[in-house]
TrEMBL record:
Keywords noted in UniProt: Aminoacyl-tRNA synthetase, ATP-binding, Coiled coil, Cytoplasm, Ligase, Nucleotide-binding, Protein biosynthesis
One MF term in the entry's GO annotations: ATP binding
PANTHER family documented for this protein: ASPARAGINE--TRNA LIGASE, CYTOPLASMIC, ASPARTYL/LYSYL-TRNA SYNTHETASE
Annotated EC: 6.1.1.22
Matches recorded under InterPro entries: Aa-tRNA-synt_II, aa-tRNA-synth_II, aa-tRNA-synth_II/BPL/LPL, Asn-tRNA-ligase, AsnRS_N, Asp/Asn-tRNA-synth_IIb, NA-bd_OB-fold, NA-bd_OB_tRNA
GO BP annotation list: asparaginyl-tRNA aminoacylation
Highest rank taxon of the organism: Eukaryota
Nucleotide-binding recorded as keyword: yes
Pfam families cross-referenced by the UniProt entry: AsnRS_N, tRNA-synt_2, tRNA_anti-codon
PROSITE patterns: AA_TRNA_LIGASE_II (PS50862)
Protein's name in the database: asparagine--tRNA ligase
Amino acid sequence: MAAVQELADRTKSDAKCYIDPTIGKDDETADGSESKPYQSLYHALLQHLDKPAPTYLTKIAPKEGSTDAPAWEEPAKSALKKAVGRVDVYKKKLAKEQAAANKEEEERQRRLKNLEEAKKIVLMEDESLPAAVRIKLNNKDVTLGDGEIKGTRVKVYGRILNFRAQKSATFLDLKDGYGVLQCVLQAGDLTKCYDALMFAQETALVLYGELRKVPPAQKAPDNRELHVDYFKVLGSAPSDLDAISNKVSRQQDPWDAQMLDNRHLVLRGENASAVMKLREAVEMAFIDTYREMEFRKVSPPAMVQTQVEGGSTLFKYDYYGEEAYLTQSSQLYLETVIQSLGNVWCLEKSFRAERSLTRRHLSEYSHVEAELDFIEFDDLLEHLEEIISLVVDKILNNPVSAAYVKLLNPDFQKPSRPFMRMKYADAIEWLNKQDPPILNEEGNLHVFGDDIAEAAERRMTDIINRPIFLTHFPVEIKAFYMKKDPNDLRVTESVDVLMPGVGEIVGGSMRMDDYDELIEAYKKNGIGHEPYYWYTDVRKYGSSPHGGYGLGLERFLAWMANRHTVRETCLYPRFMGRCKP
């Protein structure tokens, strides 16, 4: 009651403050006058915390049925006590916040003072030490200090991945795109200088020191650490609101708008960069494997005037007044050079104008394509099994690329051979025999002629859980150039290679080698053959049985790296540099 009595004593003045619970406002539009009353006693008290207190008057409505006018009366003691209690709580909160702000300001001033003092410390390299050898962080061929044995003094460049400042030392995890190295800065000038106090993730620097083995019972990458004797910051990084950890985070969805806009920063993360490094390893494995198989690499054009996979997915553009397209596939060009170069392959960009945001669609993707001369359909299947297996073996047999696979997909197993062979008609029957049946996109049982949807195809592959050669697709759902099976003219000698977890990674077929049959295929598909004269001539001048395939590099990589979408395997999955508000 003391607080209430104190307030009552303070309110004995001529000034008045009006409170109307019905029409009053607890905001800046009210001033406590009779014409602009507050709504609550609590808010009125807050407005006079540091001012002489007025007499508080609350509007009392007349009893029901009464003709009396509303009256202004001083609040009841119980109402005043309740309001004062809330004010006391608010004042304590204010005091706590002020204390915290004071402490923060003291800390800021102390830090500013320390930073000013730190600027006086000038680091100098000790000229009496052995000359430092520059190495990359993946270089393991360096003598490590151990006990009284001196290690090699090295110079390393990189950026701070993580750091922790302790009383006795500051520990940095340095990265350079090749490896990670723990660096130890013993307490002293090295840790008290201005640059050390301003360390942040992604700070770029060069460090000098002795490489030593990590003490027993402690852990560090490659069981070694750099004992720093000198360093120099080459490029600072923000540690405030602009810090990289505030821009991108492992916990965020990498495909939300903010993360895509900051893809250039996402790529600095361990997983994203590992995917890019594995991608390079996959490309190199294909290059080496094709070279060993004596395939010649060619570079077909990306700007074309013919279609390969249907006109609906063509990116059109004006080529100096003529209609032209970005290529859907290099296959037609590859077919025209096997006669003089032998088996050929390429790794080029292909483009599909499919406005489809699915797990496996890209408008621009890297296309591994190959054409083989003088083969039968079984030869094509055997080659596909061989090339996929050899590429996977090369990646897993290389300790560097194998480590990326282990990081990204710890449970990855190379595909078991032989791959399962299943005809399209048998797949239709298999889908319908499941309990419950795996239905088509219309919600019905599959029938011969359906283009088996991705979801059904993936589910079948995951249940069977082994690589599948899905073969002999109907003529109506495949491209015009695919050769018909001579034993069943309803279907083509075609194949999709399906892998558990990702679905289709390769599509291939035997190509029509008969001139008249190809001319008829043009007509049936409504394609004028004149622009394809160069392709048709292949059948006129020494035609031969041949076949080929296309492999989406991003799908192959998504399979090996266990990525949910093929977009995750792209350096930049959408345009960058768009204007942002």
